[in-house]
Amino acid sequence: MRGLLTPEHLGALAVTIAICAVVVVAARWWPGAWTDWFSRALALVLVVNEVSWWIVSWRSGLWTVTGYLPLQLCSAATFVAAAGLLWRRPFLVELTWFWGVAGTLQAILTPDLVQHFPDYWFLQYYLGHGGIVLAALFLTLGLGFRPRPGAALRAFVATLAVTAAIGLADLVTGGNYMYLRRPPPGPTLLDLMGPWPWYIAGGALLAAAFFLALELPFRVRKRANP
């Protein structure tokens, strides 16, 4: 995987972990009006960062319908996380939690990135993906919003619906969004699930398992503290 375990990658991971830890601890121990301002600021950063990717790719002559439409799951997670930060509706918070931790976090751990710090594309990648993970942790572990019973199932159904829509877009554009037409170029968990199209089914099962695992701690804690 390009960019994996390089000093830049490890540095970006360390910065992401540190910021998440500081913000979550601060929200838990020193709640107040600042959390509302932080939510709005983080939502703005996420949206502006995503839109800037469209603009820069267009102005750089890189933009094509096969690779630069906002049709990756992380693009959807960006806007879901921003909406969850602003309005804090239960379903938006749940999707942010499941998509941010089960999906976007993997993109940070196994980046497919050839650019180097401080290149725009490097900063945009980690700011966007790290911001989604930060939003997921801030809303749940920091502010105390909890996925409701059945949240994993609802998030999984929503993920299947989004995947189906993106699969249709792949057919129309000839793109490979969400790697539904061919596997990613570097090593990922999908490599353990066989060739196309079997890895798609395997990825769906793995997502279901991740979602259930991410809901379980909240159910266990609720039983322990009735």
Write the layout of secondary structure elements.
Layout: H1 7-29, H2 34-59, H3 73-87, H4 90-109, H5 120-142, H6 151-173, H7 198-224
Helix pairs in contact: 1-5, 2-3, 2-5, 3-4, 3-5, 4-5, 4-6, 4-7, 6-7
Give a short synopsis of this structure.
The protein has seven helices and no strands. The protein has 226 residues and is mainly α. The chain has one domain (7-224).
Model description:
The protein is mainly α and 226 residues long. It has one domain. 69% of the residues lie in helices and 0% in strands. It has seven helices and no strands. It has helices at 7-29, 34-59, 73-87, 90-109, 120-142, 151-173, 198-224. Helix 1 (7-29) packs parallel to helix 5, helix 4 (90-109) packs across helix 7 and helix 6 runs antiparallel to helix 7. The radius of gyration is 18 Å and the shape is globular.
Structural domain tally:
1
Number of helices: 7
What is the gyration radius calculated from CA atoms?
18 Å
Structural class: mainly alpha
User: Could you state the order of secondary-structure elements as H and E?
Assistant: HHHHHHH
The separation of the N and C termini measures 45 Å
Largest sheet: none
The proportion of residues forming helix, as a percent range, comes to 55-70%
Poorly predicted ranges: none
User: How many beta-strand elements?
Assistant: 0
How would the global form be characterised?
Answer: globular
What's the pLDDT, averaged over the residues?
Answer: 91
Portion of residues in beta strands equals: under 5%
